[in-house]
Design the sequence.
């Protein structure tokens, strides 16, 4: 039913965080495969992806990646983004009655400071992007990034939250500092 796709570059820790949050979907049989598109990582990203059973691609054409996805729906995420409890049910509910794209709710516990939110657009993948494989195939072009795919168009909001990747990085920096 669902293929998860992420792009990474030296995101070993963030990738591990996201993949651990996705285990529920794999156990419930919703996640068919996970594809990690690498941009020249020199850390352990490949090992993390391999240990989790992901396809780790170091060169690709986005059209071929989407075509090879095993799921009819694609969930595009940033490494480090962690869907919160209930994400599997929210996605299953959405795909059963909707044909259009959707995004997670932003986490109420992880919000940027007010002045950083004012007049600023969120990055396209900050809240994830759920879309049908068919919709992506109709518009994807060689050279596009996942952020390009997630830009534009209206998306419904799923009834569960996601901790954005930037929040995970900020928490790690606080612990380390």
Sequence:
């Amino acid at each position: 039913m669902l293929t998860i796709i992420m792009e990474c570059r030296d995101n070993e820790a963030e990738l591990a965080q996201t993949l651990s949050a996705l285990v529920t979907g794999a156990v419930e049989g919703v996640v068919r495969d996970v594809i990690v598109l690498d941009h020249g990582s020199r850390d352990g990203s490949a090992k993390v992806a391999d240990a989790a059973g992901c396809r780790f691609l170091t060169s690709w054409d986005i059209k071929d990646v989407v075509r090879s996805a095993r799921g009819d729906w694609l969930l595009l995420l940033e490494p480090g983004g962690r869907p919160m409890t209930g994400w599997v049910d929210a996605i299953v509910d959405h795909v059963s009655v909707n044909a259009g794209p959707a995004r997670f709710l932003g986490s109420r516990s992880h919000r940027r400071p007010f002045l950083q939110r004012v007049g600023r657009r969120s990055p396209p993948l900050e809240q994830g992007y759920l879309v049908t494989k068919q919709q992506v195939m109709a518009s994807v072009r060689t050279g596009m990034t996942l952020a390009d795919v997630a830009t534009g168009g209206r998306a419904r909001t799923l009834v569960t939250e996601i901790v954005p990747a930037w929040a995970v990085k900020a928490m790690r920096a606080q612990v380390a500092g």
